[in-house]
Amino acid sequence: EGPESFPPLRDEAAVRVLQGRMKGIQGHCNSCYMDAALFSLFSCTSVLDSMLFMPFPLCDRNVQGILRDEIVNPLRRTGFVRASSVMHLREQLTDKGPCSSFTNAEKDPEEFLNLIMQQILGIEPLLKLQSGGQKEHECYCYQIFMDKQEDLVVPDVQQLVERSFLSSDLKLVEIPSCFIIQMPRFGKEYKMFSKIIPSLELDITDLLLDSPRECCLCGDVATLECS
User: Fold this and answer.
1) What is the spatial distance between Cα 98 and Cα 1, in angstroms, rounded to a whole number?
2) CA-CA distance, 70 to 58, in Å (whole number)?
3) What's the domain range around 98?
4) Which PROSITE patterns does this chain map to (predicted)?
């Protein structure tokens, strides 16, 4: 008999199970970066459920079991995960990773994702990016980098991704199976945006390398792109 699984929460079920007091992942000892990442990756989507079950080449089954049985399943079943369960995962990451402070220090979410996806589970990178026509590089998530935009007061994710790709001269080499995006963040002192509206769908047509698009003047297939 294989490990028990619970499907991600959808629509009314998501509201019923996740809304209210004592819901979500309980924070403790600078865990917010990991709590937010785990909630985003697993509460309402199954796109990364292979992380919970697949025997990847480097896969540490102990870490995989903790992630599945102590964090994802309780989150989907009851809408609540105890801080002790996340600490159990953090202790394992500290043992397995090159860094000794996963149990107490605040980290960048990308550092956590790279460790668990690449070094502990051995998953292939999710994104292939190309910058300025140079050699492509692979990664697990994309962090939005951009200068302060005076005309964006309350942006949505679509606007932020497009402007960030444009300012960095980036293109997606292929359509990603999963597109993990880290919002711009500037610590406790300064926030670039007080709010960001989630885009429920993301149009990546203009972000794809060599994808056919129509000319904005004549409507035929475009041959040139003006930034």
Assistant:
1) 34
2) 21
3) 11-120
4) USP_1
More confident residue, 164 or 98: 164
Q: What is the pLDDT of residue 4?
A: 80
Task: Decide: 129 and 208 in contact? Cβ < 8 Å.
Answer: no
For the ranges 155-159, 175-179, 183-187, the lowest mean pLDDT is seen at: 183-187
Burial 215-227 (b: 16+ CB within 10 A, else e): eeeeeeeeeeeee
Return the closest-CA partner of residue 127 out of 108, 114, 109. Answer: 114
Q: Is 2 within a domain?
A: no
The radius of gyration of the chain's CA atoms, rounded to the nearest angstrom, is 19
What CATH number is attached to the domain comprising 91? 3.90.70.10
For residue range 9-62, what is the model confidence (pLDDT) as tens digits?
A: 999 999 999 999 999 999 999 999 999 999 999 999 999 999 999 887 778 889
